[in-house]
């Protein structure tokens, strides 16, 4: 192989390697609002509204979200979003998770939280995303905190 072909080959290989290493920035997921849902004898349902932002120019597909919810520093348990969501490049989506709270587990703490209009909310866990159709699923961790409204829906 002559020198010019060798250089061309090296340039092509380098460009392919760089394009393969192009990373996708993870989207951000943050609690925006908590809605007090239905209250029963042993449990309650909360509507947890998240803001999902895509910092990439390419669309991303979020297949599911799994998280632990803490309000005012107290863990209420684990929740999930199972609906697939496509977020446009540099776009934002709102997603809502219906969260089941076991009142028998923390009765006093739950009542205290339910009596407030604002709470310190923390959600941490994982979401599973694809950069586009057919790409492999990536597990991405997240941890977000926010002071948020907590009112009746």
- Return the string of H and E elements: HEEEEEEHEE
The radius of gyration computed from the alpha-carbon positions, rounded to a whole number of angstroms, is: 21 Å
**How does the helix and strand content classify structurally?**
alpha+beta
Distance between the termini: 72 Å
Key features?
single chain, 153 residues, alpha+beta, 8-stranded mixed β-sheet, 2 helices, 8 strands, 18% helix, 56% strand, elongated
Structure description:
- The chain is an alpha+beta fold.
- It contains two helices and eight strands, in the order αββββββαββ.
- Strands 1, 2, 3, 4, 5, 6, 7 and 8 form an eight-stranded mixed β-sheet that branches.
- The radius of gyration is 21 Å and the shape is elongated.
- The N and C termini lie far apart (72 Å).
Give a brief rundown of this model.
By secondary structure, the protein is of the alpha+beta class.
Annotate the secondary structure layout.
Elements: H1 3-21, E1 28-39, E2 43-53, E3 60-71, E4 74-81, E5 85-87, E6 92-102, H2 107-114, E7 118-130, E8 138-152
Parallel strand pairs: 1-8
Antiparallel strand pairs: 1-2, 2-6, 3-4, 3-5, 3-7, 7-8
């Amino acid at each position: 192989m002559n020198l010019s072909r060798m250089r061309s080959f090296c340039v092509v290989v380098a460009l392919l390697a760089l394009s393969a290493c192009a990373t996708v920035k993870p989207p951000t997921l943050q609690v925006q609002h908590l809605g007090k849902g239905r209250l029963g004898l042993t449990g309650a349902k909360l509507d947890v509204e998240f803001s999902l932002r895509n910092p990439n120019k390419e669309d991303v597909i979020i297949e599911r979200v799994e998280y632990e919810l803490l309000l005012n520093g107290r863990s209420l348990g684990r929740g999930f979003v199972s609906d697939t969501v496509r977020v446009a490049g540099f776009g934002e989506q709102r997603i809502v998770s219906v969260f089941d709270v076991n009142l028998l587990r923390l009765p006093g703490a739950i009542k205290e939280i339910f009596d407030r209009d604002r709470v310190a909310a923390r959600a941490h866990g994982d979401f599973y995303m694809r950069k586009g159709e057919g790409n492999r699923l990536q597990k991405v961790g997240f941890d977000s905190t926010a002071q948020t409204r907590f009112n009746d829906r």
